Amino acid sequence: MNLGLEGKVALVTGGGQGVGRQICIELAGEGAAVVVNDLFAERAQAVAGEIEAAGGRALAAPADITRPEQVDAMVRLAAEHFGKPISVLVNNAGIVPERREKGGRTPLFLDMPVADWAKVVDLNVYGTMYCCRAVLPGMIQHGAGRIVNIISEAGRVGEAQLAVYSGAKAAIAAFGKAIAREHGRHRITVNSVALGAVSHAGIKDGPLSVGATVDNDERLGKMLNLYPIAKGLGRLCRPEDVSGVVAFLASERALFVTGQTLGASGGFVML
Fold it and tell me: Which of 94, 141, 177, 207 has the smallest CB count inside 10 Å?
């Protein structure tokens, strides 16, 4: 299937590892030039190098997306480098609350320090807003654009020990719907992809590590029961299970899909 991404410029935030990295590789494989953003320069450079080694086009763009001046500079750099504005934005960067101790549970809302609220809201909500504000003028001028927000199923149903995070992800989904209404007339679509637990190489220990199996991690066996398709496959979601969904929503094939939240969580939530 030709997704029509050839010649497009895509910005992926948090693209240095995990789901973000795979989204970058998938979009590049479909012909898009990819701006790989990450807070850590070495991560962004490594993924951009992977793409270029495979014959694609990429630009490493390290930046802190909670700093609007850095976001604006990144978007200007991308336009100068590729000679055209960003036409696809994937808001993937995000964080969950810090655990009280290594391997422990995240705190209940009343036990969560106020300073930690700000960390979660700044990156998940304000980071997304700053990136949208930076790319929308170019999309409007071009008369087309795709914005895909990576959220969590916690934002659709709420989750204990993740109250602030749940609220932040819900805010992104609602914000995206509003932007979809405001800019549909400019042929700009805005959608969200909701994830559950994702296993990837950046996680070294526990049930989300790539080496975890039901035989060596009792917690993984319990987690699989929460995801109908995962129970059948015997594994949790992987980045490649997400990247194809994002590529579709970023493509010409999804021209009439906007303001939607698509769950890519193995049936953890069914709406």
Answer: 141
Out of 126, 130, 165, 227, pick the active-site residue.
165
Contact 126, 185 (CB under 8 A): no
DSSP for the chain, written as a single string:
-----TT-EEEETTTTSHHHHHHHHHHHHTT-EEEEEESSHHHHHHHHHHHHHTT--EEEEE--TTSHHHHHHHHHHHHHHHSS---EEEE----PPPPSSTT-PPPPGGGS-HHHHHHHHIIIIIHHHHHHHHHHHHHHHHT-EEEEEEEETHHHH--TT-HHHHHHHHHHHHHHHHHHHHHGGGTEEEEEEEE--B--TT--SSTTSTT--TTT-HHHHHHHTTSHHHHHHTS-B-HHHHHHHHHHHTSGGGTT--S-EEE-STTSS--
Write down the domain spans for the chain: 9-198+239-263, 201-236
How many CA atoms within 13 Å lie on the side-chain side of 270? Answer: 6
Alpha-carbon Rg for the chain, nearest whole angstrom, is 18
- pTM for this one? 0.95
Active site residue 165: yes
Residue 96 has what pLDDT?
Answer: 83
CATH topology (fold) of 9-198+239-263: Rossmann fold (3.40.50)
Q: Angle formed by the axes of helices 114-121 and 163-183, to 10°?
A: 30
Cα(257)–Cα(218) distance, integer angstroms:
40
The string of pLDDT tens digits covering residues 91-142 is 999 988 765 444 567 889 999 999 999 999 999 999 999 999 999 999 999 9
Token pair belonging to 25? 């590789």
